[in-house]
Amino acid sequence: MGFTTIVIALFIYIIWDVNYFIRCVFTLGFAQFFQRKRKISEMTSIYGLCTTQDVDIFIRHMNNARYVRELDFARFHYYGLTGIYSEIKSMGGGAVQGASSVRYRRTIPIFNFYKITTELIWWDEKAIYLQQKFITFDGFVRAIAMSKQNITKVNVMDLMKKFEGGQKRPEQPEELRMWLEALEVASKKLRKDD
After folding, report:
1. CATH number for position 161
2. pTM for the full model?
3. CB of 87 within 8 A of CB of 155?
């Protein structure tokens, strides 16, 4: 390998988050080839380890930004195992993060293993709502997140009918209802400002 090739590879590694893309491929590939498919109503789990790349400036526990990044991988994993993203794409749509809220309860110390569970908790015409939890092996929920996944160019009610368990929407959880109300209040304020 020549010097120029090394410099180009190093430049690409610096300006693109290569590890992120490698992890995406690994996460989706593992789900595709080594795990059983899941119903949309089933919870999925992936596992992680808080390493030196995940910690805050004090090198003691996971940085808040890393939680959000790990939630991405867990969401991709859920999409892959349930087939929901493939169905969205086949219908000409896409998915984009519309909102998220993370409640940090207790830190995840460096070199500690954890799992992230992902569960579909509700949907409406335009979005699906996921609840995700970071759980360490002592069983403690270290952080809990809710996310609104906007589904573009697809009516979510029609989408969900294609999946077993998607014909009847679950009851909307109270905390989700209140969170959506808070999002609407914030949106109204922004619309007034615009």
Report:
1. 3.10.129.10
2. 0.90
3. no
